[in-house]
Amino acid sequence: MSDALPVGSDLPSFTVEPQSALLLEAQDIVTTGQLACRPIADMMSVRPRRPRQAMAWATIRSDDASATSGSVILTSHRGEEASAWIAELKVAVTGCTNFVATSERGWTHRFTVRKIPPMDAGGDAVSDLITNVLSPDGKGNVMTIVRTGATFATYLLDEQDDGPIPIPDSIATRQHKKIQAVGTR
Hints:
Shape: globular
Largest sheet: 9 strands, antiparallel
Strand order of the largest sheet: 1-3-4-9-8-7-6-5-2
Distance between the termini: 9 Å
Radius of gyration: 15 Å
Strand content: 35-45%
Order of helices and strands: EEHEEHEEEEEH
Number of helices: 3
Number of strands: 9
Low-confidence stretches: none
């Protein structure tokens, strides 16, 4: 999975820094009582309803003055789990406008969700703006998930002053092709 992570020129205008630390720890079990929002809450959880088989991630930072930063997370899934999960996410970002999530780490937060037009990359994609209502600046994270077979490339970017801007289609398409070339499932 780590072989499919972007490096250097894979993400033009971004600096990529692969991470070796775990992104989610054992106590990062996130739940919500709002079933329509569960696919979104599962993206934050170490124990989603549709388990991940492997995960690798990197931080990304824009090389220009916009200071866009975030991460790209690659996850592999078993069989049709990736297709099913992304279908559920598409329904969730349309029907779930806010939800309360709780983590075994000890936090409970209310989130708002706003659908963003999907990009044209990979086998399937979905984008939304997810915001913790306690965010001091009122800004959230733009979450874009691109499915390549049974692999998700999930991009989390800070919301910018000019609004929720997802990862450019050209970058997502380049990553989609790299995942295909590496052959992760």
